[in-house]
């Protein structure tokens, strides 16, 4: 079993990296070949070069594509693909919102939007469970488990399927 709190979102095996490198090379070749096409060529080339560089980066540096949270005694570090790691101290959390928009296999995923002095972070349900962060946050004094249960039962419809609905489950005005 993988003990790391982070999950790599691109293949880490040599064969997987070779495949990503091949896709990068193919995409870059298509970008070069498409450039002379009138009107659409430069745009298509730009798109191909962008995706090609992204695949090349994934093949050469898979550690840039980590997803997860590592819980420490005083806070947690959140990593997301192609973003800088962000450390959020528990003492600086001012508000936690449960966010629902019908994601997941059964439409029942509940994500957290955490507002703190370190900034605002969006934590997916998969990350909350894999890192056990959800239990740690639920243990904060003043965390409203009933509102979280209400959010888990909420069935979004209409615009909530696109924009989602937020339920405030924790508030700390002192932070």
Task: Name a few traits of the molecule.
175 residues, 2 domains, 4-stranded antiparallel β-sheet, 8 strands, 25% strand
List the helices and strands and how they pair.
Blueprint: E1 6-8, H1 14-34, H2 41-60, E2 66-71, E3 75-79, E4 86-89, E5 93-100, E6 111-116, E7 119-123, H3 125-130, H4 133-138, H5 145-153, H6 160-163, E8 165-171
Antiparallel strand pairs: 1-2, 2-3, 3-4, 5-6, 5-8, 6-7
Helix pairs in contact: 1-2
SSE string = EHHEEEEEEHHHHE
Helical residues, percent: 25-40%
Structural class: alpha+beta
- Outline the low-pLDDT stretches: none
Number of DSSP-assigned strands: 8
Largest sheet data: 4 strands, antiparallel
Radius of gyration: 20 Å
Describe this entry's structure for a reader.
- This protein is α+β, with helices and mostly antiparallel strands and 175 residues long.
- The protein has 2 domains: 6-60; 66-171, no CATH class.
- 38% of the residues lie in helices and 25% in strands.
- It has 6 helices and 8 strands.
- Strands 1-2-3-4 form a 4-stranded antiparallel sheet. Strands 7-6-5-8 form a 4-stranded antiparallel sheet.
- A hairpin with a 3-residue loop joins strand 2 and strand 3 (75-79).
């Amino acid at each position: 079993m993988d003990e790391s709190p982070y999950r790599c979102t691109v293949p880490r095996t040599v064969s997987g990296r070779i495949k990503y490198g091949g896709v990068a090379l193919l995409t870059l070749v298509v970008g070069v070949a498409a450039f002379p096409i009138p009107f659409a060529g430069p745009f298509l080339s730009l798109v191909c070069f962008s995706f090609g560089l992204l695949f090349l980066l994934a093949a050469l540096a898979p550690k840039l594509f980590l997803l997860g949270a590592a819980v420490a005694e005083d806070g947690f570090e959140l990593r997301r693909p192609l973003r800088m790691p962000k450390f959020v101290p528990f003492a600086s959390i001012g508000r936690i919102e449960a966010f629902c928009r019908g994601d997941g296999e059964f439409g029942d995923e509940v994500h957290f939007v955490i507002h703190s002095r370190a900034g605002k972070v969006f934590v997916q349900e998969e990350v909350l469970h894999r890192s056990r962060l959800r239990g740690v946050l639920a243990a904060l004094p003043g965390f409203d488990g009933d509102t979280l249960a209400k959010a888990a039962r909420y069935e979004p419809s209409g615009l909530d399927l696109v924009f989602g609905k937020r339920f405030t489950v924790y508030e700390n005005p002192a932070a």
